[in-house]
Specification:
Length: about 240
């Protein structure tokens, strides 16, 4: 089903207060904290959100419907989001707006070269930046009606979503029996830590990524990360 056909009438176009009204946004994101931020941004903007936490889940969604906008994390548990970006960018009819997101700004080039229309660096909390990234690339016929008020409002996700991410990290640590799992864990924790402002966790994740890249021993660093993750789970409140 083509989602854009469902909201073609002017009565479903965005307006100054809710500029993304009538749009359905597929968020492909494995972090519950980042996804909660995007859910709040969609809610404030009038858009509907559907979520997938992996490439496999996203492809199942796309077999059923075509969203107006796709926001795709570059680091997913079963592969790189750039694969999905490239697939959507070459599909006809094309999704109107495709955005890449990541906690690593160095991946912006990867997203754009794969065919993304734009890129958002985590943390994604600014309502104005979120709306502008979509509206800048939206076709003229889908633009909101009338003037749009610009606000510097920022959303604050529920900290319990961060705890869900720590539980996921603990699960990955428990099953990290191959190099790919460790690479995924490092980038996942780095993105989550930056989103929530957890400097010690971000530093540890970056250190693990560097050690993996250099081929050094990882036992000490993975044990340290396991301690940090467990501490945050036990505290229940992350920061």
């Amino acid at each position: 089903m083509d989602d854009s056909d469902l909201f073609a009438s002017a009565t479903r176009l965005g307006n100054g207060r809710r500029p993304l009204l009538g749009l359905t946004i597929l968020v492909v994101e494995d972090s519950r904290y980042a996804c909660e931020a995007l859910r709040l941004l969609c809610l404030r903007s009038g858009a509907r959100i559907r979520r997938a936490d992996s490439l496999k889940s996203a492809r199942k969604h796309l077999q059923v419907y075509r969203p107006s906008v796709a926001i795709i994390d570059l680091g997913l548990p079963d592969g790189s989001g750039s694969e999905l970006i490239a697939s959507l960018a070459s599909t006809t009819p094309r999704v109107s707006v495709i955005l890449g997101i990541s906690g690593d700004e160095n991946t912006q080039t990867t997203a754009l070269e794969a065919g993304a229309d734009g890129f958002l660096a985590k943390p994604i909390t600014s309502l104005a930046a979120f709306q502008n990234a979509i509206l800048t690339n939206l076709p003229a016929e889908r633009q909101p009606v009338g003037p749009r008020s610009v606000t510097d409002e920022a959303v604050v996700p529920d900290i319990l979503a961060f705890r869900d991410d720590m539980a996921h990290a603990a699960d990955v640590l428990g099953e990290a029996d191959n190099e790919r799992s460790l690479d995924y864990l490092a980038q996942f924790l780095a993105g989550v830590a930056r989103s929530v402002g957890d400097a010690p966790l971000a530093t540890a994740a970056d250190r693990l990524a560097r050690i993996r890249k250099d081929g050094g021993p990882i036992a000490v660093e993975t044990a340290h990360i396991a301690d940090l993750v467990q501490e945050r789970l036990e505290r229940k409140i992350a920061i």
